[in-house]
Target: LPS-assembly lipoprotein LptE
Amino acid sequence: MYAPHHGTSEELTKIKINVIADRTGQMLRNKLSQNFTPHGHTSAHPLYALDVRVTETRSDISFRKDATSRRAQITMVAHYSLKSLDTQKIVTAGTVEEISGFSIGSQADFASLPAVVSEKNTRERLIEALAQEITLQLAGYFIEKQG
Model:
């Protein structure tokens, strides 16, 4: 989990995280909210609005002799922009990309729970990593701004 630099913690609580599309976006929004306000204390008067757009791609990267997938990879890309609610101008923006893979059981096991759980766990790890990186980049922005 993100450990805030002195002074950035308060700035992060002043960010309103706008709705992010899809289930992946909802999970990312929840992780960002936990990072920005670990004690649940959000600002009643936010100074910034965070917009995030997430794309996800799943690719089979390794195959068996029978052409079934042995391993898959998920790539998640998040484009974010932080807007000042006072000026309505974007003050910082960036792109974060995370990639992770998972093994897929044999054809006989393919419909089994382990393959589904492995893919689900991979997605959760990627969402956590995206949230961490976005949080660090925004904290870096606030540190520079204070500088």
In short: The first strand starts at residue 15 and ends at 17.
